[in-house]
Design goal:
- The complex is a heterodimer of chains A (250) and B (213).
- With 250 residues, chain A is an alpha+beta fold.
- Chain A is built from five helices and 13 strands.
- In chain A, 53% of the residues are buried.
- Chain B has 213 residues and is α+β, with helices and mostly antiparallel strands.
- Chain B has a six-stranded antiparallel beta sheet with strand order 1-10-3-8-6-5. In chain B, strands 2-9-4-7 form a four-stranded antiparallel beta sheet, with helices on one face.
- Helix content of chain B is 12%, strand content 27%.
- Chain B is built from three helices and ten strands.
- The chains are: A alpha+beta (250), B alpha+beta (213).
- Chains A and B meet through helix 1 and helix 5 of A and helix 1 and helix 2 of B.
Chain lengths: 250, 213
């Protein structure tokens, strides 16, 4: 695929982390349908700056994430923009599955008995990746659950929508600043299917087209234009191509 | 769910008013009950809880929402930690619904939400930063500042996935009461936000009361 240089598949219940540079494109593919990809972002220059779901949602007046949305840090900057999405609704509120919950729902399957077909959970997967950077449970934030649609009724009751992500569903993230990405492919915490939902996810990495002033994500709302302005300020002196974004106007 | 309390203010072991834009940081012991009282109405109280033993264990909105399968907090809600342990339970609530997905205002997010030049308007996360800087004895750092509860704030989510900050459903004298299930620290920023309806555009004091039961 154009501008895509690296492809890998993450096995069901797997986890990974890597530092991505500004301008990187990451495409995720739900290979078999019904996948869930937990994801968190940190600033590698200051690990205390991290993805902030409430800031992301309220500044874009949305409960769901999709094409056009930007993913904000707690410092008013944009880690990444959602530049492609075939699903239309990804949630970022419900957190992760946990070991006791996975064992209660689908039976305990551990490494001793099942080797790498054991039942991993999202919380422990993140703890493993966090520890590689000196981070721990206190550094966890509300993560994104890509490919998982969670709807709320009028009383606030939550439900994972079945079949929201068919096989081949894709989304692409364009990274707007250098970002430490943590991810796992463990089941969504509200997944009640009768068997442990073991779903792989495809990941492609490449180089994004340069951002232009008429970019869809930047112009999704006035708030995002100001978010791009904050990024331009962060890279002042290091990225002349971002200077036109500094003012934040339309 | 609307539920009132029979606890009498004159029997409280602690009463303290938190002025608009100020913070409160203090302990609540297991078994004690904390009331947060909206004195003049429509005032958001941005609240975090920590284990008094180890502040790396803190209130977790995600674990709380996941375990109750519901977005909103009211009577019966068990507030859980990032270790998925019960920290407090809401035992009375005359407001009916409290938010835990809207987060807290910050000078940085104000630049995004309102205007690049609104950077210097007072914000909740600055109050928290001052609180943890002035009280190093509790061992709370910036990494421990996670997603909070907005008591008295109304942030409805629609069936189509929209999210709005609505006028508060609180009023003068409304309150919420929580009984601690472990020794906790409570950190409250009495919200100074002037740019949205969360404080009715006029931040006012709240009062906290603690009973030994």
């Amino acid at each position: 695929m154009t501008n895509m240089y690296y492809t890998t598949d993450i096995a069901p219940g797997g986890h990974w982390s890597l530092r991505l540079r500004r301008g990187t494109l990451m495409r995720l593919t739900d290979l078999e349908g019904g996948s869930n990809v937990g994801m968190l972002f940190y600033n590698p220059e200051n690990l205390l700056e991290r993805y902030n779901a409430p800031d992301t949602l309220k500044c874009q007046h949305t409960f769901k994430l999709t094409h056009g949305n930007c993913l904000y840090s707690d410092m008013g900057r944009i880690f990444a923009s959602v530049v492609e999405d075939s699903v239309g609704w990804h949630e970022t509120i419900c957190g992760n599955s946990r070991a006791d919950q996975v064992a209660a729902r689908w039976g305990k399957r551990d490494y001793q008995g099942d080797r790498n077909q054991w039942h991993q959970n999202g919380h422990d997967a993140f703890l493993v990746e966090l520890a590689k950077y000196g981070l721990g449970s206190a550094d966890l934030a509300a993560n994104i659950n890509w490919f998982s649609q969670v709807a709320a009724d009028d009383d606030g009751n939550l439900r994972l929508v079945e079949g929201a992500s068919p096989a081949g569903s894709q989304l692409s993230l364009r990274f707007e600043m250098d970002t430490l990405v943590l991810l796992h492919s463990c089941p969504h915490p509200l997944n009640l299917s009768s068997e442990y939902p073991a779903r792989p996810v495809g990941i492609e990495l490449g180089v994004a087209e340069p951002v232009t002033l008429d970019d869809v994500c930047r112009n999704h709302c006035p708030e995002n234009r100001r978010g791009f302005a904050n990024n331009a300020l962060y890279y002042l002196g290091a990225a002349p191509e971002l200077l036109p974004f500094l003012e934040g106007g339309g | 769910m609307l539920t009132s309390s029979s606890r009498q203010p004159e029997n409280a072991c602690l009463r303290q008013v938190i002025d608009a834009g100020d913070y409160y940081l203090g302990a609540v012991k297991a078994g004690q009950t904390l009331r947060i009282l909206d004195l003049e109405g429509n005032q958001a109280a941005d609240t975090l809880f920590y284990s008094a033993v180890d502040p790396a264990e803190h209130y977790s909105a995600m674990d709380t929402i996941r375990e109750q399968g519901n977005l909103y907090l009211s009577t019966g809600s068990v507030l859980r930690s990032n270790e998925n342990k019960p920290m407090l339970e809401i035992v009375a609530d005359t407001c009916g619904r409290h938010d835990t997905i809207g987060g807290a205002c910050a000078t940085e997010s104000n630049t995004v939400r309102y205007d690049l030049e609104k950077r210097c308007m007072h914000a909740c996360r600055d109050s928290w930063m001052l609180a943890i800087a002035e009280h190093p004895e509790f061992g709370i750092g910036k990494r421990d500042i996670s997603h909070n509860i907005n008591f008295f704030m109304n942030v409805p989510v629609t069936a189509s996935g929209g999210l709005t900050f609505e006028d508060g459903i609180s009023a003068p004298g409304k309150y919420v009461e929580l009984t601690a299930k472990m020794d906790v620290l409570v950190l409250i920023s009495n919200c100074p936000q002037l740019n949205n309806p969360c404080n009715g555009y006029n931040p006012t004091p709240v009062e906290i009361l603690v009973w030994d039961n």
